[in-house]
Amino acid sequence: NAGVTQTPKFQVLKTGQSMTLQCAQDMNHNSMYWYRQDPGMGLRLIYYSASEGTTDKGEVPNGYNVSRLNKREFSLRLESAAPSQTSVYFCASSEDSYEQYFGPGTRLTVT
Amino acid sequence: AQSVTQLGSHVSVSEGALVLLRCNYSSSVPPYLFWYVQYPNQGLQLLLKYTSAATLVKGINGFEAEFKKSETSFHLTKPSAHMSDAAEYFCAVTKRGYSTLTFGKGTMLLVSP
Q1: Burial of A89 (0-12, 13-18, 19+ CB in 10 A)
Q2: N or C, which terminus of chain A has less Cβ within 10 Å?
């Protein structure tokens, strides 16, 4: 079992460029999440998908879109990257919300 | 709305000393509470959880936490710190039937020899 995998591990973008962060889980979990982690801010929820076919906004959704492609995959898209989106992005999955399994993260820098 | 407050962004202890990381929660209904740990350059992993069973919860690596409703607290403790415990620790809260967790801002545990 690979658990939760994320690609890429690192990315540098210029302001205005777009990109998609990929996340996949092999635990047959229903729920998947995207967080961003910034120093001193903890983890903040961007979007989540409680089940295949549904997505909902979290605390900080502006500037992001998501797609729950199937039960395994949940992608996060930045349409026009801004320096304020420089962060570490984590994907997580869970069967319920009580134990979430996290991926290794994507470090994104927007210049 | 639910929230957690972690007191102290950094806590320093000597190896072998007691570890105490503080978490207070705010919730209008009985909460479910969690501690996660993040080692450098890794994702988070669950240390322990409280979901309305026993109030003293034991987790991995010798950590435990006690749910105290009267104090709205869920502090994390370990009797004797190891160098390998150096990491960032996050408290989180949710409630029964809710789809998401709310995380605290984290406490960095530094362990010196």
Answers
A1: buried
A2: N
Task: Considering only the beta carbons, identify the residue of B90, B100, B106 that sits closest to A97.
Answer: B100
Q: Which residues of chain B have pLDDT under 70?
A: none
User: Amino acid identity, residue A38?
Assistant: D
A65 pLDDT higher than 80: yes
Chain B CB within 8 Å of residue A38 CB? no
Q: Measured between beta carbons, which residues in chain B are less than 8 angstroms from residue A99?
A: 34, 46, 49
Measured CA to CA, the distance from residue B82 to residue B61 in angstroms comes to: 10
Place of tokens 């993260």: A105
Report residue A97's pLDDT band, with 50, 70 and 90 as the boundaries.
Answer: low
